[in-house]
Specification:
Radius of gyration: 24 Å
Strand content: 15-25%
Structural class: alpha/beta
Distance between the termini: 63 Å
Largest sheet: 7 strands, mixed
Number of helices: 13
Strand order of the largest sheet: 4-3-2-1-5-6-7
Length: 337
């Protein structure tokens, strides 16, 4: 009987130890395993981890309550590739070609003529007005549901012009790991992008784990209407809000309603968002993704037509913003490499 009692005591002790280990793992899910495995062990990775660890360490100087752990990410050039042109511009070009049979006038009308001829310089000569004309022709005149399906269908077949891979595979593995790492440590992650909000929302949850309601972007005007007796939202040929540059802090305040403590971008279009985030009270962290790897991705910054990084790069050191060097700091860039 004594042996049986001792065996039970040992079993109970083993169960207790196992429960303690499980509880510890639940409280510390990221620190129990290697975080950010696609990042090299450079100062950039260490700075990110040190900040996150400080925000979750109770009674520490850098502790931040979970409700205030808000992280915002630019999309183009920060989470997915923006070269040789923005992904949404690729969608616009393909939509113009698909719709061209209905618009014979486009054969002689700019900027549609240049799109149909594959003349990127001609498109560029049209400037901002030309781009707006293209966006309105391909994004408006339909319901929100119709546009969402059009976008989803495009993503299902469209390929990146350089790699031949689906655009949904042109996402940066280290940044997806960073999103997961932050969420595992109690952060809410948002996209704040100059891209169209309804262009991004159909795919962001699948590729980033970010649901549609946590995506902030540029919008065109919509209005309530009835088709027969069915209520719909119709997309109008009119710009509603541009979520870029100084528009990004405005968009964050309008749609998120709180100042983030973590921000990631890659261009001067993110400058104001980074300034605003790091101007808040308490701990904050800002990082720039610097495209330095021409072999595995692209190398560009100050002179680029897409994702120009000039002013923000000049001020990064003075403002204590981390500059992530893709070539030096990332073991891999895309999952297919």
């Amino acid at each position: 009987m004594r042996r049986s009692t001792q065996a039970i005591d040992v079993s109970l002790a083993s169960v207790a130890v196992a429960l303690i280990l499980l509880i510890a793992a639940a409280w510390n899910p990221v620190f129990a395993q290697e975080p950010l495995p696609s990042w090299n062990d450079t100062p950039a990775k260490a700075r990110i981890m040190d900040f996150v660890k400080a925000t979750v360490t109770e009674d520490g100087n850098g502790y931040v309550a979970p409700s205030d752990r808000i992280a915002v990410f630019d999309n183009d050039g920060t989470l997915w590739s923006e070269q040789p042109y923005y992904t949404q511009l690729g969608f616009v070009l393909d939509r113009v070609k698909a719709l061209a049979p209905r618009h014979p006038e486009w054969k002689t009308k700019e900027p549609f003529k240049s799109v149909l001829a594959g003349d990127m310089k001609g498109i560029a000569r049209g400037g901002e007005k030309g781009i707006v004309d293209l966006v309105m022709a391909t994004h408006a005149g339909m319901t929100t549901e119709e546009f969402s399906k059009t976008v989803s269908d495009w993503f299902a077949t469209a390929k990146h012009p350089r790699t031949g891979k689906p655009y949904t595979e042109m996402t940066y593995v280290p940044m997806r790991e960073l999103l997961d790492y932050l969420r595992a440590n109690g952060f809410s992650t948002y996209i704040v992008s100059g891209g169209g909000v309804e262009f991004m929302r159909p795919v962001t949850e699948r590729i980033y784990g970010i649901p549609p309601e946590q995506v902030v972007g540029s919008t065109i005007a919509t209005q309530y209407d009835l088709v027969g007796d069915v209520p719909v939202l119709k997309r109008l040929p009119k710009i509603d809000f541009i979520d870029d540059g100084p528009g990004k802090p405005v968009g964050i305040n309008k749609f998120i309603g709180a100042r983030p403590i973590f921000v990631a971008g890659n261009s001067d279009g993110d400058y104001e968002m980074m300034r605003w985030t790091t101007a808040g009270e308490g701990p904050s962290f800002a990082m720039l993704v610097h495209h330095t790897d021409a072999d595995r991705e692209y190398a560009y910054d100050r002179e680029s037509a897409f994702g120009k990084l000039d002013k923000a790069l000049d001020e990064a050191e003075r403002r204590n913003w981390l500059v992530v060097d893709m070539k030096r700091d990332w073991k891999t860039i895309f999952a297919f490499q």
